[in-house]
Amino acid sequence: MRYFKNKDKMKIVIFSNLYPPNDRGGAEIVAQNMAFALRDLQHEVLVFTLGRENKNEILENITVFRNKIPNLYFYSDDAKQPYWKKFIWHAWDIFNIAAYLKIRKFLQQQKPDMAICHNLMGLGFLTIKAIKSLKIKCLYFSHDVQLADPSGLLYWQMKKNYVYEILKNIYAKICAWLFRGVDVVISPSSWLLKFYQEKDFWGNSRCLFLPNFYFTDQPSKKNKRSNKFLFIGQIEKHKGIDWLLDFWQKEFPDKILEIVGDGSLKNDLQKRFPNFLFHGKIAAQSILPNFDFLLMPTLVYENAPIVVPLAMSCGVPILVNDIGGAAELVEDKQNGFLLEPKNEIQLKKIIQKISDFSDEDYYRLSQNAQEKIKNFDKIEYLKKLKEIIANC
Question: Structural domain of residue 113, as residue ranges?
Answer without folding.
Answer: 11-213+377-390
